[in-house]
Amino acid sequence: LQESESENKLDGETASDSESKSEFGGSPPVPTSDDTPEVLNRALSNLSSRWKNWWVRGILTLAMITFFFIIIYLGPMVLMTIVMCVQIKCFHEIITIGYNVYHSYDLPWFRTLSWYFLLCVNYFFYGETVTDYFFTLVQREEPLRILSKYHRFISFALYLTGFCMFVLSLVKKHYRLQFYMFGWTHVTLLIVVTQSHLIIHNLFEGMIWFIVPISCVICNDIMAYMFGFFFGRTPLIKLSPKKTWEGFIGGFFATVLFGLLLSYVMSGYRCFTCPVEFNNDTNSFTVDCEPSELFQLQEYNIPLVLQSVVGWKTVRMYPFQIHSIALSTFASLIGPFGGFFASGFKRAFKIKDFANTIPGHGGIMDRFDCQYLMATFVNVYIASFIRGPNPSKLIQQFLTLRPDQQLHIFNTLKAHLVDKGMLGRLEDA
């Protein structure tokens, strides 16, 4: 009996969980069935289940990496579209779990309202992005200018409509269940939609801020699995019994090294380092600029302790490579906790994967549980240590003002430069 109780505690099940199951009429769903393609099943039929899983995961991982390279080649607009599609699929997987776990089949308007709230939140976030990065295009078109001016009011009105629809849908004997699902929907929106919006913001700072963090998470996932598969002996965390300290540590060193090498290669190409901006003349995105100091080779002194080991006194590297160490360290040490969080979520509801979309890997959310946490970190990191005022955006906004407002700003700026002694020097030059 004591062992049984301890197993329940390990799975995250408490007395309140049991009450919930009885209230909602049944136990959580069973683990997802194997969805491995028949071709792979026949080709790997002679292998043990352990090695069969290794080959299935390896083949599908190579396929996903190839697809990742293809969409990078297709450019930022395609990447933004893919992020949108991934977000919708992740939302669908989590909402479907809630729909099945709580047996909410008879709830009026539940699925309709869930997707309506997803539409509202995406309208708000993508509207903000369009206003920010397509400012001149928005100002040029009258309908877009009106939508941009009242964007937040329209977004709030749309949300209030959904809120009122939810209140009107409340029915007797289902109140608690309906509020459970209302909360489930909003937490899902917070986790999925907000993070995908941050991914797009990182992308517009330069594709390198999108590719390197995502690649570090992928590298850490692969290398931690490889080190754990071949050398793993010591369990890391009870939430994920297959995770080991050997895989965790091996994945960390491999990811830091990979981040340094990838950053060195990508820092030499403007198409990766330049911010993604909208060109008014061609009505298209451009990624051409003069590389900033982050992407210009600098010479650094090697600490005396390491000079005797490597035999060098100085090393030439891009400043971005130093930042890549912070990114790869987070991807290796903190990023996996996004996966552990997802594992705890799945154990709480007795499911193996979020879905069976990718054989051997589970659902889309199973592959992106760490990516969303990484996206938030990168966005915060850029805002804290990298991003500064953008002169081109300030000029664009300045040009949309009335002439008397432009003149007022000009006189204020002129007086400020005179006080600083800058204007006289500029005139002399």
Please supply descriptive tags for the structure shown above.
mainly alpha; two-stranded antiparallel ribbon; two-stranded antiparallel sheet; 5% strand; flat; lipid metabolism; phospholipid biosynthesis; membrane; transmembrane; EC 2.7.7.41
Write up this protein.
Helix content is 72%, strand content 5%. It is mainly alpha-helical. It has a domain of 251 residues. Strands 1-2 form a two-stranded antiparallel ribbon. A two-stranded antiparallel ribbon has the order 3-4. Strands 5-6 form a two-stranded antiparallel ribbon. A hairpin with a 4-residue loop joins strand 3 and strand 4. Helix 10 packs across helix 11 and helix 10 packs across helix 17. The longest helix is centred in the middle third of the chain and has 30 residues. It is flat and about 80 Å long. The termini are far apart.
Molecular shape: flat
- Quickly count the helices: 20
Structural class: mainly alpha
Proportion of strand residues: 5-15%
* Strands, total number: 6
Distance between the termini: 87 Å
Strand order of the largest sheet: 1-2
**Assembly type of the shown chains?**
single chain
Integer average pLDDT: 81
Sequence of secondary-structure elements? HHHHHHHHHHHEEHHEEEHEHHHHHH
- The radius of gyration computed from the alpha-carbon positions, rounded to a whole number of angstroms, is 26 Å
Query: Low-confidence segments, ≥5 residues, pLDDT <50?
Result: 1-33
Task: Compose a concise summary of this entry.
This protein is mainly alpha-helical and 429 residues long. It contains 20 helices and six strands.
